[in-house]
């Protein structure tokens, strides 16, 4: 069973319901002892990947990466990759990736700095005028954006309309390669090596998500075994400070720092900043924003994965070990700014960093395709809830009692799936027993 972000290998499924209870958007059910996935409700958070004990659920991010030898290839490197090698310099990690067959490898550090500059400017310009809705919400985590679109659409206008660094760099790399080699865009293949399953999108969603400049996504865990071998070879080589790759730059610790919770806001010059990570914590934070509890904040960084992107489902190293590696890189390199603020200001004023998609449009990209409930159906749900035990055990195959009641009314579950309703219906069918 194939969805947008994940695939279920149902022959392995035991119907344990771990995934059902973990899914934040109620996109999974158990029917006839097998998982049933509703991809229209899936936001690609990867929680089901984490909790499945049988390995039934697989990310649609590519697990193998045969490169097209007829195309010029480039790999955009998530800064999380550096944290997977605690005793290796980031520039050596880049060289190791290139030895895997890519023509070019691209570090994100400069584009992270561009993004942070743009956010600072946006906050400063809108703080007093309040032309934007505060608190502003980071646009970086795609799962957070989809969660807001599905569950908290009133907060869509709080999302900062700045393009993500990976989107900007994909466009820049493609333009640069076309100019360098005098080739067309179709002769270029750009890969993004990532810890995040939510980056595995169909071509339609890539366009909607403004990620169309990236041709394929590859999980860090997929490249890690081979990459380790190349890293060992790089360590044994003589020092080479002259790199001929036109995209080469010496990464500082801004990238690795970015990958942990709080790393995005750490360099920003503002007091009203907040960072929250972890799915349940993010959900509670969004509820508090709706309630007005964080109205005194200017900007909130939200990451669904625990510890931020370091805890992504497609990483290869324990997130706590990775965080230790990040702090080591920060002590070694620092996170100083390296780009001219005057040049960045000119780009900002030209609109270089702004998204072509208004955040409010995301609700159109993730519509609830289920039929709207009638008043009679809603009353039927409430009547069923009055009979249900309210313990949210998921034995029925739905994540909680309310969802089960909705499923019964929608015709995708039976009353007898619930042990309590089964007892009630059996009692009514047989009547009072004679003693």
Please tell me the overall pLDDT.
86
Shape: globular
Level of helix content?
A: 25-40%
H/I helix tally? 17
Q: What's the Cα radius of gyration?
A: 24 Å
What oligomeric arrangement do these chains adopt?
A: single chain
Largest sheet, in brief, is: 4 strands, parallel
Provide the low-confidence segments as ranges.
none
Structural class: alpha/beta
Q: Work out the count of structural domains.
A: 3
How many beta strands in the DSSP annotation?
11
Beta-strand residue fraction: 5-15%
Going across the major beta sheet, what is the strand order? 6-5-8-9
Give the termini separation. 52 Å
Q: Topology as H/E string?
A: EHEEHEEHHEHEHHEHEHHEHEHHHHHH
Question: Keyphrases for this structure?
Answer:
3 domains, 3-stranded parallel sheet, alpha/beta, 4-stranded parallel sheet, 17 helices, 435 residues, 3-methyladenine DNA Glycosylase II, Chain A, domain 3, single chain, Alpha-Beta Plaits, globular, 11% strand, 11 strands
Q: Your description of this structure?
A:
The chain is an alpha/beta fold and 435 residues long. It has helices spanning 18-22, 47-51, 80-83, 90-98, 109-127, 142-151, 165-181, 203-208, 220-236, 254-258, 279-291, 319-333, 341-349, 362-365, 375-387, 401-410, 419-430, and strands spanning 6-8, 28-31, 34-37, 57-59, 72-77, 104-107, 136-137, 188-194, 216-219, 273-277, 299-303. It has 3 domains: 1-60, 2-Layer Sandwich (Alpha-Beta Plaits); 72-365, no CATH class; 372-435, 3-methyladenine DNA Glycosylase II, Chain A, domain 3. It contains 17 helices and 11 strands. The longest helix has 19 residues, at 109-127. The mean pLDDT is 86.
């Amino acid at each position: 069973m194939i969805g947008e972000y994940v695939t279920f290998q149902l022959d392995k499924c035991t119907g344990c319901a771990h995934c059902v209870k973990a899914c934040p958007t109620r996109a999974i059910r158990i029917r006839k002892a097998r998982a049933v996935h509703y991809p229209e409700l899936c936001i690609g958070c990867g929680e089901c990947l984490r909790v499945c004990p049988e390995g039934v659920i697989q990310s649609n991010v590519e697990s193998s990466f045969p490169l097209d030898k007829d195309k010029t290839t480039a790999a955009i490197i998530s800064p999380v990759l550096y944290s997977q090698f605690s005793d290796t310099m980031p520039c050596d990690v880049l060289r190791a990736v290139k030895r895997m067959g890519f023509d070019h490898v691209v570090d994100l550090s400069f584009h992270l700095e561009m993004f942070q500059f743009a956010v600072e400017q946006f906050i400063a310009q809108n703080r007093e005028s309040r032309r934007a809705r505060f608190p502003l919400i980071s646009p970086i985590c795609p799962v957070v954006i989809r969660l807001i679109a599905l569950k908290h659409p009133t907060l869509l206008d709080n999302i900062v309309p700045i393009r993500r660094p990976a989107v900007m760099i994909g466009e820049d790399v493609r333009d640069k390669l076309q100019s360098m080699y005098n080739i067309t865009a179709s002769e270029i293949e750009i890969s993004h090596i990532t810890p995040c399953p939510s980056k595995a999108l169909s071509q339609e969603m890539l366009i909607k998500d403004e990620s169309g400049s990236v041709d394929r996504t590859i999980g860090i865990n997929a490249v890690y075994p081979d990459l380790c071998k190349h890293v060992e070879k790089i360590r044994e080589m003589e020092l080479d400070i002259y790199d001929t790759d036109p995209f080469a730059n010496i990464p500082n610790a801004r990238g690795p720092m970015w990958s942990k919770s709080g790393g995005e806001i750490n360099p920003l010059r503002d007091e009203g900043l907040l960072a929250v990570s972890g799915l349940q914590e993010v959900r509670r934070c969004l509820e508090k924003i709706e309630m007005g509890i964080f109205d005194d904040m200017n900007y909130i960084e939200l990451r669904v994965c625990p510890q931020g992107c370091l805890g992504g489902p497609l990483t290869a190293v324990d997130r706590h070990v990775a965080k230790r590696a990040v702090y080591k890189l920060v002590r070694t390199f620092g996170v100083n700014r390296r780009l001219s603020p005057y040049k960045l200001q000119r780009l900002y004023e030209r609109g270089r960093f702004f998204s072509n998609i208004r955040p409010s449009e995301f609700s159109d990209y993730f519509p609830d395709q289920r039929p709207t409930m009638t008043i009679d159906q809603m009353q039927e749900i409430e009547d069923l809830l009055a009979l249900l035990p309210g313990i949210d055990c998921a034995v029925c195959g739905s994540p909680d009692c309310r969802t089960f009641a909705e499923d019964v009314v929608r015709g995708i579950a039976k009353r007898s799936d619930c042990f309590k309703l089964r007892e009630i219906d059996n009692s009514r069918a047989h009547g009072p027993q004679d003693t």
